[in-house]
Amino acid sequence: MMNEKPIGILLLAFGGPDSPEAIEPFMKNLMGGRIPPPALVEKVRARYNLIGGKSPLPNITAAQAGKLEEYLQDAGGNFTASVGMCHWRPFIKEGLEKLLAQGVDRIIALSLAPFYSIVSTGAYKEELKKAVSFLSGRVPPITMADSIYNNSYFLDAVAEKVTLGLAGIPPEKRKDVRVIFSAHSLPVTYIKAGDPYVEQFEFTVNRIVQELHLENWYMAYQSKGGGQGEWLGPMVEEVMDEVKQEGFTDVLVVPVGFVSDHIETLYDIDIAQKNYADDLGLNFYRTASLNTSPLFIQALAEAARSLIK
Fold first, then answer.
1. What is the pLDDT of residues 220-239, one digit of tens each?
2. Cα–Cα distance between 242 and 249 in angstroms, integer?
3. CATH for 152-286, among 3.40.50.720, 3.40.50.1400, 3.30.420.40, 1.10.860.10?
């Protein structure tokens, strides 16, 4: 029998400006409430202008929540899903309030960052704690799902995109294409402090490489921030330098660290990395993002259902 009260699913995401007017306040949130320098705002705004003037992330995440709710309902459960973002609307508190308005009797929180880091999932958890405290006494039990880096459906979803990406390369070049798996760079200090980010990234890539029998592949990082100190590397551009030096001509970038299109895929990869590859004389390809891939939605569903007793 279906539960009388629905189970709430709260998708936790980084967030992104949903309009040109949102860019500056979004950046202010990213900077902990500090006013971003005007020159930096204009630099970031110019990048967003090249990808449509805003981030598609809010709409994609909302679509993921809708598809997830539909999938779980079709499987015979009573679920309602909402979105809570760390740095822009709908904020985590707003996503939580939406679930409360639906009368949920428990909530499962799912981070859309596939690899755990204190600056992504860790930050989402902290914001969730603040929201629960603010809504004191009104929030039912919340269970936080583990990162999905080892979820078999997530691995299959990425492998599917890699297979499709390779299929889009001319057959005579396919066997020599260099596959570059990318994830967001982080300060090395986080890893030294015990952050499992790199370990989970490596696990995912190794499983996909084994499944697809890839021989010519690399792990690399992108979108490095401006902070001081050492950051995770090598960067994608450094790997492309290596590919060029080895005499190969084709690269396929797989943004496995991101599940949705946003500025890190649409600008950092599709524009900045492609321009770098063009300057090197390399043929540049990227796999499609997971977005609302049925296998990815199934990965989220299984992560949620595994917590239901």
1. 999 999 878 999 999 999 99
2. 11
3. 3.40.50.1400
Architecture of domain 7-148+293-305: 3-Layer(aba) Sandwich (3.40)
How far, rounded to the nearest angstrom, does the alpha carbon of residue 37 sit from its chain's CA centroid?
Answer: 27
The reported pTM is 0.96
Q: Is the CB of residue 45 less than 8 Å from the CB of residue 20? A: yes
- pLDDT confidence of 2, banded at 50, 70, 90? low
AA letter at 115: F
57 CA to centre of own chain: 10
- Kindly list the distances between the CA atom of residue 166 and the CA atoms of 86, 184, 242, 252, in Å, as whole numbers in the listed order: 34, 23, 20, 8
202 pLDDT above the threshold of 60:
yes
The reported pLDDT for the residue numbered 259 is: 99
**Quick one: CA dihedral 298, 302, 308, 309, positive or negative?**
positive
Give CA 294 to chain center in angstroms: 16
